[in-house]
Amino acid sequence: MTTATFEATTLTEAPSEKQPFSVGRALAWTFMIIVILVSLFPFYWMLRTALSSNNALYAGSHSILPVQFSWGGFQRVFGLQTGQKAIDAGGAGQPINFWRYLLNSVIVSTLVTVGQVFFSALAAYAFARLRWRHRDRVFMFFLVGLMIPAIFTFLPNFVLIKQLGLIDTVFGIALPTMLMSPFAVFFLRQFFMNISREVEEAALIDGASKVRVFFQLIVPMSAAPITTLAILTYIASWNDYFWPLMVSYTDKSRVLTVALGVFKSQTPQTGPDWSGLMAATLVAALPMLLLFSLAARKIVNSIGFSGIK
Amino acid sequence: MASDVAAPVVSTATGKPPGKARRRTDDTRLALMFIAPAFLGYCVFLLWPTIRGIYLSFTKFNLLTPPQWVGLDNYVRMIHDPIFWNAMRVTLYYVVLNIGFQTVLALVIAVMMQRLTRKTWLRGIVLTPYLVSNVVAAMIFIWILDYQLGFGNYILAHLGLGRIAFLSSDHWAIPTIAFINVWRNVGYTALLIFAGLQMIPETVYEAGRMDGASENKMFRHITIPLLRPILSLVLIITIVGSFQVFDTVAVATQGGPVNASRVLQFYIYDLAFGRFQFGYASALSVALLLVLLVVSLVQYRLSRADESDLD
Lengths: 309, 311
Hints:
The complex is a heterodimer.
Chain A (H helix, E strand, L loop, with lengths): L1 H11 L10 H28 L21 H6 L5 H6 L9 H31 L6 H10 L5 H14 L6 H9 L3 H13 L2 H9 L4 H12 L1 H17 L2 H6 L8 H11 L7 H29 L7
Chain B lengths: L6 H8 L13 H29 L2 E2 L7 E2 L3 H7 L2 H35 L3 H8 L6 H11 L6 H8 L11 H29 L3 H9 L4 H29 L3 H6 L11 H11 L3 H28 L6
Antiparallel strand pairs in B: 1-2
């Protein structure tokens, strides 16, 4: 849907890159450069601080380059530098291990993404192409779900997860969003409906079952939107904080966002370990930035009014 | 939330002609298998919790003993709870600041991108902050805005403006949180508006140019009116999201100083998990849900009224 609109518009009106110089354009570019700087500078500052020696930050708080380059921040984050040495550097001195949190984040995001996209795709196909009674009524029933803010379901879902005995497990964090999201169903249904019926019917005449048609025809033909949806679901799940904060209490299920909050609250109030904190922040942010750099074009072009989140 | 945008697309996609007569096949059995997992997820983790949340709001519940029906007690308490009203006020203040700045800035960025270059790299850069979590954004700015060592305060001091205790003063806590979230979300909002701009046919602008309209005039008399339905949609998504602010507050201020940044969602969390008053917390959640419903309805009415603009 969106990709189609985008191609159409870029074809009819190619961006005019070579326009004569004007004061207005110069001002506009100046504005955009400021926007770019404000968007990116905080990332640089995080990197620069993470690579500085914490104790040197006090004297060199405004140095543009890392102050006394050091891997200490990262070493404390991954539990390679503990005890007195870490305390001397301003750290908490307790062994922390971000590998564990990184692994938990990967497990939760993978469970959510694979489950949500797969089950939503199945449902979306049933709504888009299969013929059955009350189909449109059931779909309307699903659409109501779009209007319920997820945040409203958190407290009751917490009670439910507790009753299921899944508190403080990665599975408990993933479960509520693993089976579907109304949005994913809705989004994929749009794509499936736009696939030409002729192709599908040709396969059916050749004797393929509808299950085969779905897996061998519909899914490969919708690879692009499915990938985009999967990447965005992965990022959203990775960045989630509120729900995992409710469910996880210990290292066993703690994901990166929650760990970062805990790490921050444990750091000494006087003379906090800024280089350690920024190294941890970078560790939490980097995987998604890398993922984005791999699929930037897809993600950027998918944001439009087919309503990608 | 963001999924609200999806609504207008339905009409275009389902408006397909019904197609030629097809073989009458009935896929009921297969269809039931295909929707079963999603249907289960929908009922168990979305619909049932919603009903249960409303039910819990009429009970006294501490998680350990079964909920006790107390009728409207929680709602009566809410009406007399000064912290609730303060939270409501703080949240509204946040939403106004956050949405105000974000929308204006996003609109300007979108129009600039439309005019200057539509290259993907620029949109990619503008979107980058949106890819990190609220927690990461909060952490970065806690550091940059630190009173003693933060680079932001270094610049302020250097310019002779004096240092500001951004996150630990009553006056600055909410504006600072609003700013942090503008930084993270403005690119996403700008791209939504940008997509809306692409939907305005170039012929309208050509006609404007023929009539000798200036860029400024065209912006005011073509772009803004034609963009209005889309702006309304963008506002629904962003306002509904903005009311649910929690992460940044939880990481950066914990609602403080005192109650200066105790937004509704943080108060709800605190009641439920700090004091185990799940019943009362649920009542506040229902109040928030109602506020969001009203916001969506009002916005939806406004956007509906304008739908005929681009035809």
